[in-house]
Specification:
The protein is an alpha/beta fold and 450 residues long. The chain folds into 2 domains: 3-217, Alpha-Beta Complex (Spore Coat Polysaccharide Biosynthesis Protein SpsA, Chain A); 224-432, Hexapeptide repeat proteins (UDP N-Acetylglucosamine Acyltransferase, domain 1, 3 Solenoid), CATH 2.160.10.10. It is built from 8 helices and 39 strands. Strand 2 (26-27) and strand 3 form a beta hairpin. The protein starts with a strand and ends in an 18-residue tail after the last strand. The chain binds uridine-diphosphate-N-acetylglucosamine (UD1) and calcium ion.
């Protein structure tokens, strides 16, 4: 079996009340269409054809890294019309049609559908308690005879609970023939893809169905209400999975996982934390309340104290981070590092045993082992035009409220006196000071109030 994938995504999604095309709306940190593209790729198809129309350039741009054949549907004249635009590109024995706004499609269901529909027409169906709005699967003695769109249903047909999910798998050469025969003589004056059922019957091609079991896997997103409900459902599921694996999530209604969170053993997550993108927490990691971690790795035995922000960073073992610490992209700490309150680290490596405990900015730096950076120290990495690097070698002690004007190397073991502005490299193992000597004025009197 060889396969082409068609993903329908030309709609604007009027009920989203947004200028953004529907399939670009984010679900758990990813656009809706990304989920469907990911599912399609797992089927190892010959090609993936995505039919777009509304704001097509925006969509192409968003997925510029994907290997997609973009097909523009000029006017939205129905699902049959949309698929017709892809016919010049369809290859292989089978074609599967997916919807760009049905993000949680189940890959196993798709594989089963592919299997039963070789040389045939396969339809993914679902028994829906409230089938309103969907095409109904009409059967006579078990055989599918028609898919009737909701708007074309008789009172009796309206009661049918088995619905067309929209996902179909079709013999490619038959599909191409049938698409040219679809007409729009229905209540919506649309070209219905579902009319191929009738054409298959006329050609004596067997129609197979496979019934999905989990409603979320066939649910389309049509409104923000549905989008937010799906986000909540996914979040609850991820929380429940982690708790089942032994993670202590103090209150799962107050933990947001927007992406994938992987945890080792004995991990504890306090309330109000947000995890975005791919986040990995090692064994015995504790995450304090109201912490935001994005696209980062935290190694074993590290504690993140409350209100910390960690973005695109790598935190080593046995670190103490926060409270109120900010690790910006490119921050990398080795083991036994302490980063305290109101410390910002950007694009810098911090060596083992180093402490930066209060009110400091470290950017574009290489900091060695067992360094102590006192309160209120700043690496002045930016001259207004260019960024420069600061190197702080092992065992350095930087006194509080010092400024290190990059580019600069602070030699191993050197001590910088508090309140210094350092503009030149410092020698190893010496005390370097750059502040006026203290003067005392005896018998000085404070001004008196007039
Ligand atoms: C369609 C099915 C219906 C099924 C339902 C499942 C047809 C005729 N009907 O209904 O049986 O129960 O899906 O949700 O196929 N699209 C385009 N171009 C178009 C029209 C639609 O790209 O010209 C895309 C939309 O962006 C959307 C998908 O196709 O992603 C489905 O379109 P929608 O209008 O929601 O389908 P329905 O007609 O409601
Ligand atoms: Ca729909």
């Amino acid at each position: 079996m060889t396969l082409s994938v068609v993903i329908l995504a030309a709609g604007k999604g009027t009920r989203m009340f947004s200028e953004k095309p529907k399939v670009l709306h984010q679900l758990s940190n990813q656009p809706l269409l990304q989920y469907v593209i990911n599912a399609a790729k797992k089927l190892s198809p010959l090609n993936i054809n995505v039919v777009i129309g509304y704001e097509s350039e925006l969509i192409k741009q968003e997925f510029s890294k994907e290997n997609i054949n973009w097909v523009i549907q000029k006017e939205q004249l129905g699902t049959g019309d949309a698929v017709k635009y892809t016919t010049p590109f369809l290859e292989g024995s089978q074609t599967i049609v997916l919807y760009g706004d049905v993000p949680l499609v189940n890959i196993n269901d798709l594989k089963k559908l592919l299997k039963i529909s070789e040389n045939k027409l396969g339809i993914l169906t679902f028994d829906k308690e409230n089938p309103k709005g969907y095409g109904r699967i009409k059967r006579i003695e078990d055989e599918v005879v028609e898919i009737v769109e909701d708007k074309d249903c008789s009172e009796v047909e309206k009661k049918i609970k088995e619905i067309n999910t929209g996902i179909m798998c079709i013999d490619t050469s038959r599909l191409i023939q049938w698409l040219s025969k679809i007409k729009n003589n229905n209540s919506q004056k649309e070209y219905y893809l579902t009319d191929i059922v009738d054409l298959a019957k006329k050609d004596r091609i067997k129609i197979e169905t496979y019934k999905a079991k989990d409603e979320s896997t066939i649910s389309g997103i049509n409104s923000k209400v549905e989008l937010i409900a799906m986000e909540k459902m996914m979040k609850e599921k991820k929380n429940a999975e982690l708790i089942a694996q032994g993670v202590v999530i103090i209150d799962s209604s107050r933990t947001e996982i927007r992406g994938s969170l992987t945890c080792g053993s004995d991990v504890e997550i306090d309330v109000g934390c947000i995890f975005e993108g791919d986040v990995k927490l090692g064994n015995n990691v504790k995450v304090g309340a109201y912490t935001h971690i994005k696209q980062s790795t935290i190694l074993d035995d590290t504690t993140i104290k409350p209100y910390s922000h960690i973005d695109t960073s790598e935190v080593g073992q046995k670190n103490n981070i926060g409270p109120y610490a900010r690790l910006r992209p490119g921050a990398k700490t080795k083991n036994n590092v302490n980063i305290g309150n109101f410390v910002e680290i950007k694009n810098s490596e911090i060596g083992s045993g180093t402490k930066i405990n209060h009110l400091s900015y470290v950017g574009d730096s290489e900091v060695g082992e067992n360094v102590n950076i006192g309160a209120g120290c700043i690496t002045c990495n930016y001259d207004g035009l260019n960024k420069h690097k600061t190197i702080i070698e092992d065992d350095v002690f930087i006194g509080s409220n010092s400024q290190l004007v990059a580019p600069l190397t602070i030699g191993a073991g050197s001590t910088i006196g508090a309140g210094s502005t350092i503009t030149k490299d410092t020698p190893a193992n010496q005390l370097t000071l750059s502040r006026p000597k203290q003067t005392n004025i005896p018998n000085w009197e404070r001004p008196k109030k007039k």
